[in-house]
Write a structure and sequence with these properties.
Length: 305
């Protein structure tokens, strides 16, 4: 494995506000690396430093051995970016948007035409090549952003919340395309607030919260380490906690109350479920553990605003 991006004590401040608070990470060539966290965690601030559009406040950041700084052309040449905001030119058609971008990268006209045709096919927008942007659905716009990000044939692709606000079909189509790109050898950097997306796509993730990294690792390993294999949720009033924990606690790895629910974490939930049936607790959900459990366990299941 070769490290392609490396950050040490990376900070980003906006005035006195600390958006990225001294984070360190290494991204390996060819992996899909995810920044997972809620709105405001500092994901976009981090990736904007990686693709050299936002200056670091302090710390170090290297991309393919080059120091990342604003307008580092060598880094920009090798990086494709799918931004969080839909930054397409509404006055132009689908194809014209790509042509303008190809021009930025000084791709010769004939080569640009060839790449644009191929990419429109890749994101299934060939039939829309002459449509104006406002005639496209959000899913189509996001696909066009993917095509645009790939015009310079980047080795590193940054996708900043590529599926936020999309319906399930559009989301799955984007997941397939991103997986295809990874299979072709691209290094993928994904930011997402969707735990399922991180679980679907990422080899490794960092969980970010308030500018800090809380945990790092492969999704499945994080789940196994923090939660276990299974979660049982019991909706019951808090005055039942003592009884329930006495009965079920010894059969679980851990438990936690949040709001109207008591959570039990297990590696093998069968003995606990047997007990739940004996106790006749109807309002119970038994399910596999997920990254969402890890996230909520780390940040607290109650809403903090
Ligand atoms: N240009 C800016 N000026 C001031 N504050 C900003 C700016 N950009 C982001 N922030 C703040 O920094 C924090 C992190 O933002 P961001 O990196 O966009 O997080 P995320 O992408 O995880 O939602 C947020 O509280 C946001 O309001
Ligand atoms: Mg963001």
């Amino acid at each position: 494995m070769k490290t392609i991006i490396s950050a040490r004590s990376l900070c980003k401040k906006y005035g006195a506000f600390v958006a990225v608070d001294g984070i360190s990470f290494d991204i390996e060539e060819g992996e899909c690396f995810g920044f997972l966290g809620p709105n405001g965690a500092g994901k976009t601030s981090t990736v904007r430093m990686i693709h050299c559009v936002s200056p670091l406040t302090s710390g170090t950041l290297t991309v393919q051995g080059l120091a990342a700084h604003v307008d580092n052309r060598a880094v920009k040449q090798q990086t494709g970016v799918i931004p969080q905001e839909i930054t397409l030119d509404n006055d132009l058609t689908v194809r014209e948007n790509l042509q303008v971008h190809a021009h930025f990268f000084a791709i010769p006209r004939r080569e640009a035409r060839r790449r644009i045709d191929g990419l429109l096919q890749f994101v299934e927008l060939e039939k829309r090549r002459d449509s104006k942007i406002d005639q496209l659905s959000t899913g189509m716009k996001r696909r066009l952003l993917i095509a645009r990000a790939l015009l310079n044939q980047p080795r590193i692709l940054i996708a900043d919340e590529p599926t936020t606000g999309l319906d399930p079909q559009a989301r799955h189509m984007i997941w397939q395309r991103l997986r295809q790109l990874k299979d072709q050898g691209a290094t993928l950097i994904l930011t997402t607030q969707y735990m399922e997306e991180a679980q679907q796509l990422c080899d490794r993730i960092v969980i970010m919260h308030q500018g800090r990294i809380l945990k790092e690792g492969a999704p499945a390993r994080l789940i196994a380490a923090e939660i276990g294999r299974e979660v049982t949720e019991i909706r019951a009033a808090a005055d039942q906690d003592e009884t329930l924990i006495a009965e079920l606690g010894p059969l679980a790895r851990g438990h936690e109350r949040a709001g109207d629910t008591l959570y039990f974490y297990c590696d093998d939930g069968r003995p606990l479920m047997k007990k739940v049936l004996e106790l006749d607790l109807p309002a119970t959900v038994h399910r596999p553990a997920s990254l969402e459990d890890v996230f909520l366990k780390l940040t607290g299941r109650s809403l903090v605003e």
